[in-house]
């Protein structure tokens, strides 16, 4: 298990809630999100991605957490709010990191969210 001393960053996982839209359909929305606080460790990672106009630099974060939030919603559909108030989407599936035949921690790649 990863040492709690390394988990210096408070984060909040946002689990989308459900509401009925104007057509009577049940939809998931972050307007009524459930919040799950955890402590983690953040590492900034900038990557260059090729576009038609040349390389674009994309900011991503790697979030290390000791466990994943218990939720029926797949982790890849969650969002994470950092201590500074910015909201990031989980980009892909979490990666379980093993040490001595057991899971030590999980790593999640986050990408910035603009708008709702």
From TrEMBL:
This is Head-to-tail stopper.
């Amino acid at each position: 298990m990863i040492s709690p001393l390394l988990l210096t960053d408070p984060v909040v996982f946002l689990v989308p809630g459900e509401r009925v839209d104007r057509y009577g359909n049940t939809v998931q929305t972050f307007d009524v999100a459930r919040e799950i606080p955890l402590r983690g460790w953040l590492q900034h990672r900038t990557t260059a991605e090729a576009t038609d106009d040349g390389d674009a630099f994309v900011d991503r974060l790697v979030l290390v957490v000791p466990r994943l939030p218990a939720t029926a919603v797949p982790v890849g559909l969650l969002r994470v709010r950092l201590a500074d108030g910015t909201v990031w989407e989980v980009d892909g599936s979490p990666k379980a990191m093993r040490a001595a035949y057991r899971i030590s921690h999980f790593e999640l790649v986050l990408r910035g969210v603009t708008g709702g």
